[in-house]
Amino acid sequence: DIQMTQSPSTLSASVGARVTITCRASQNINPWLAWYQQKPGKAPKLLIYKTSTLESGVPSRFSGSGSGTEFTLTISSLQPDDLATYYCQQYHAHWTFGQGTKLEIK
Amino acid sequence: QVQLVESGGGVVQPGKSLRLSCAASGFIFNDYGMHWVRQAPGKGLEWVAVVWYDGNNKYYADSVRGRFTISRDNSKNTMSLQMTSLRAEDTAVYYCAKDIADCTTGSCYAHLDYWGQGIQVTVSS
């Protein structure tokens, strides 16, 4: 099974800051990596798929990059509405989520 | 618009069974694979099971294989998860989710693009 490891587990940043979350896979999953945003008490929402393709309607401040086993989600200018937990997910071989990164606004 | 609505959750004793359903609308149901994903209290997301668009292929997480059965009825636009021999560690919010496949490489790889609102399952005596 493919294991996904996200870092950091918790992140605190100020409005307007650039934020980066990293996701590492236990083997090459390129490019089958998605990112989801989950706000408190809500269902997850797809942000990015195939490493860097922005889902329709998602603000352009979100971007994804990476290859092989290392991937990143970047928020270019953090907004108060971005308070959430973010999960990566590989779909190269079945489906596995990272453990999540809780993003807090300073 | 795509809608996925879960039902059938509740409180059940350990060792008992429960059946979850997911009613889908707003898309051509029999064109897409469907998944169950769960989230234990205060924990992250755990993929549980998938059923392919035609119902002919099903895959399960190791944690539920042999106890849970996923199925779908394309004539009714519904998907189900039959859960047996339930354990305390199965306590979670269960989400149904639709996938969308990319087959441009010759093989198909599917991510989850729409999710239901989730339903609580509590296993407790």
The gist of it:
With 106 residues, chain A is an all-beta fold. Chain A is built from no helices and 11 strands.
How would the blueprint of this fold be written?
The complex is a heterodimer of chains A (106) and B (125).
Chain A: E1 4-7, E2 10-13, E3 19-25, E4 33-38, E5 45-49, E6 53-54, E7 62-67, E8 70-75, E9 84-90, E10 96-97, E11 101-105
Parallel strand pairs in A: 2-11
Antiparallel strand pairs in A: 1-3, 3-8, 4-5, 4-9, 5-6, 7-8, 9-10, 9-11
Chain B: E1 3-7, E2 10-12, E3 18-25, E4 34-39, E5 45-51, E6 58-60, E7 68-73, E8 78-83, E9 92-102, E10 109-115, E11 119-123
Parallel strand pairs in B: 2-11
Antiparallel strand pairs in B: 1-3, 3-8, 4-5, 4-9, 5-6, 7-8, 9-10, 9-11
Describe the structure.
By secondary structure, chain A is mostly beta strands. Helix content of chain A is 0%, strand content 51%. Chain A has no helices and eleven strands. Chain A has strands at 4-7, 10-13, 19-25, 33-38, 45-49, 53-54, 62-67, 70-75, 84-90, 96-97, 101-105. In chain A, strands 2, 4, 5, 6, 9, 10 and 11 form a seven-stranded mixed β-sheet that branches. In chain A, strands 1-3-8-7 form a four-stranded antiparallel β-sheet, with no helix packed on it. In chain A, strand 4 (33-38) and strand 5 (45-49) form a beta hairpin. The relative contact order of chain A is 0.35. Chain B has strands spanning 3-7, 10-12, 18-25, 34-39, 45-51, 58-60, 68-73, 78-83, 92-102, 109-115, 119-123. The model of chain B has no long low-confidence stretch (mean pLDDT 97). Chain B has 125 residues and is mostly beta strands. Chain B is globular, with a radius of gyration of 14 Å. In chain B, the strands form two sheets. In chain B, strands 2, 4, 5, 6, 9, 10 and 11 form a seven-stranded mixed β-sheet that branches. In chain B, strands 1-3-8-7 form a four-stranded antiparallel β-sheet, with no helix packed on it.
